[in-house]
Write a structure and sequence with these properties.
The structure is a single chain. The protein is α/β, with parallel strands linked by helices. The protein is built from 15 helices and twelve strands. It has two domains: 147 residues, Aspartate Aminotransferase, domain 1, CATH 3.90.1150.10; 233 residues, Type I PLP-dependent aspartate aminotransferase-like (Major domain) (Aspartate Aminotransferase, domain 2), CATH 3.40.640.10. The strands form two sheets. It has a seven-stranded mixed β-sheet with strand order 3-9-8-7-6-4-5, sandwiched between helices. A hairpin with a 2-residue loop joins strand 1 and strand 2. The longest helix has 23 residues. It starts with 8 loop residues before the first helix and ends in an 8-residue tail after the last helix. The mean pLDDT is 95. Bound molecules: 4'-deoxy-4'-aminopyridoxal-5'-phosphate. 4'-deoxy-4'-aminopyridoxal-5'-phosphate binds next to helix 5. Belongs to the class-II pyridoxal-phosphate-dependent aminotransferase family. It comes from Conexibacter arvalis. Keywords: Acyltransferase, Pyridoxal phosphate, Transferase. This is 8-amino-7-oxononanoate synthase.
């Protein structure tokens, strides 16, 4: 007689749930905190003023009056929701305009707008690949890429973060397996803020007859002379087969896009379940993303990008001067390093990361905490990120808070990881 179990058991015994409860006891849960104001450089959170070093609003456009006006105008014209799928009644002229603008920016034949970036990865990877194909991913790739792989039922082969020798091994194995091969990497890795060595990855993909897809979520608007992301910065736009991006970072909105050849985009348009079986992006989201894209593509976009990079370099140097282990962006094979908006501080230990988060929060600074599986085991990070709209005085205040927190924390718990460890 088979014994059945309660499917809810895991909810009571899961390690993460137990950790959440322990942290809740001492009010040290770094997640689900309540924001009471816009995602500006300084915010109101849970009744207090906090410096926001945990937003992906890299260019500060969520507060730009033209982007806000575009959202209002879209609501005035189309109402609050589309109440339907893109396939049926949910395609507005705004969606099509945004697709045209994004395809032009990426320099691709076509582009398809999804309701979120997560769905864009799910939809592209889950539809293009099937059983019998292989997808090769970097171990640092975003969860939505891995979810797309699950949906596709293709064979997944992962290689250690940015290790080209291991990528080549995976390609050799995939070649033995037969079937199609897709390599998918983040252009900028979301937690550590480093950039994939795309020219070398493109060389390898070409050598083994694989297609290459790059997730530009954290690169769009902040890298490259046209702000078109890591592929542009590294001059491989022509060699990347599919580009994915989200509107939830520099584009100050919510939604996602896949850009590529017209035939592949048409295939997704008609076959991609996360595109077809959900309501399309609401007017305010699409209208504001379109306004943000236009700013990013203008001269002003270049100035915002430069300002963001200055801020990232300033925060990086300030935290480093305190003896904190600021994770260095991995140098590209040509030796250069790229400033992205993400400035991660290595803590290593999960519990210490939560305690540090709490101390910073109490000192009026909000940062994100990244724990395994978002980072490798033992690689807990305080993930700080800057916006173009932070000013130097605010960053100085945040660095001073880090200094005070570090001093008190080390007096009680011993030294934090340092760059020489
Ligand atoms: N890819 C990457 C690299 C991301 O960081 C994210 C979001 N954090 C996504 C995809 C998903 O995008 P969205 O938030 O629009 O669902």
């Amino acid at each position: 007689m088979p014994t059945t179990t309660d499917v809810f058991d895991k909810a009571r015994t899961h390690e993460r749930v137990l950790q959440l409860r322990a942290a809740r006891e001492i009010d040290a849960v770094p997640y689900f905190r309540r924001l009471e104001s816009p995602a500006a450089p300084v915010v109101e959170m849970e009744g207090g003023r906090r410096i926001m070093l945990g937003s992906n609003n890299y260019l500060g456009l969520t507060g730009d009056q033209r982007v806000i006006d575009a959202a209002h105008e879209a609501i005035d014209r189309y109402g609050t929701g589309v109440t339907g799928s893109r396939l049926l009644n949910g395609t507005l002229d705004l969606h099509l305009e945004l697709e045209r603008e994004l395809a032009e920016w990426f320099g691709t034949e076509d582009a398809l707008v999804y309701t979120t970036g997560h769905q864009a990865n799910l939809g592209a990877i889950g539809t293009i690949l099937g059983p019998g194909d292989t997808v090769i991913v970097d171990s640092g790739d975003h969860a939505s890429i891995l979810d797309g792989v699950l949906l596709s039922r293709a064979k997944m082969r992962a290689f250690r973060h940015n290790r080209l020798d291991l990528l080549e091994k995976r390609l050799q194995q995939a070649e033995q397996d037969g079937g199609g091969i897709l390599v998918v990497v983040d252009g900028v890795f979301s937690m550590e803020g480093d950039v994939a060595p795309l020219p070398q990855i493109a060389d390898l993909a070409e050598r083994y007859g694989a297609r290459l897809m790059v997730d530009e979520a954290h690169g769009l608007g902040v890298l490259g002379a046209r702000g078109a992301g890591a592929s542009e910065l590294l001059d491989v736009e022509e060699r990347v087969d599919l580009r994915m991006a989200t509107f939830s970072k520099s584009l100050a909105s919510c939604g996602g896009v896949i850009a590529g050849p017209a035939d592949v985009i048409d295939f997704l348009r008609i076959q991609s379940r996360p595109f077809l079986f959900t309501a399309s992006g609401v007017p305010a989201a699409v209208g504001s993303a379109l306004a943000a894209v236009r700013i990013c593509r203008s001269e002003e976009g270049r100035a915002l990008l430069a300002r963001m990079q200055e801020n990232a370099a300033y925060l990086n140097a300030g935290l480093r001067s305190l003896g904190l282990h600021v994770v260095d962006p991995v140098a590209l094979p040509d030796g250069s390093r790229v400033a992205t908006p993400i400035v991660p501080v290595l803590v290593a230990d999960d519990w210490k990361a939560a305690l540090l988060w709490k101390a910073l929060y109490e000192h009026g600074v909000y940062v994100n905490v990244a724990l395994h599986p978002a980072v490798p085991p033992g690689g807990a990070l305080l993930r700080t990120s800057v916006m173009a709209t932070h000013d130097t005085a605010t960053l100085d205040e945040a660095i001073a808070a880090f200094a005070a927190v570090k001093r008190d924390f080390e007096a009680e718990h011993g030294p934090l990881p340092s760059p020489v460890d």
